[in-house]
Write a structure and sequence with these properties.
Elements (H helix, E strand, L loop, with lengths): L1 H19 L8 H15 L3 H14 L4 H13 L3 H14 L6 H13 L3 H14 L4 H55 L1
Helix pairs in contact: 2-3, 2-4, 3-4, 4-5, 4-6, 5-6, 6-7, 6-8, 7-8
Amino acid sequence: MAAIRKITFFCGFILLVLLVCPAVTAFDGRAVQFFDDGVSLSRQGHDTEAIALYDKALAFEPNYADAWTHRGFSQSKLGQYPEALASYEKAIAINPNSTDEELWSQRAAALSRLGRYTEAIASYDKATAINPYDDVVKQNREIARGMQRQAEQAQQAQQKTKTTPLLYAPIGAIVLMAGIAAWKRRQSSS
């Protein structure tokens, strides 16, 4: 009778653990191996080859968020910012509550490179919320803010330039004609 109670208790405990704890996703071993090999190649600076291995991992496990994230890291290192951003977005779609500070920081860097500063600042803010002690992320956020201000100022200057020539064109033509007339007078009096 004691043995039956122990077995019943043990089965109930296991059932409780399964109900309360989130499910652990086990990935295909081949996908994990391709991912690990890709990380190793990326650390050696072979990012093109690493991307190919991440793609192989993703062929087996399309919802492998870390493979998407590291694929984005390698694409960023190669200057492929639109592609990197797409990889980061896929990783975030799989795990929208990601606490991977590096993912959010690298996403922000890619967005900055693409001139999308408002989104970059928001991504840096997420990275800072995950790790408020990372001064590099904070500095990069401030750089993105500065770039955003410069882009806004450049846009305002461009708007002024578009209207300014129309406003001053007649005056410029009169000044030019007056200068030509004065030059002709000097030429004829010489």
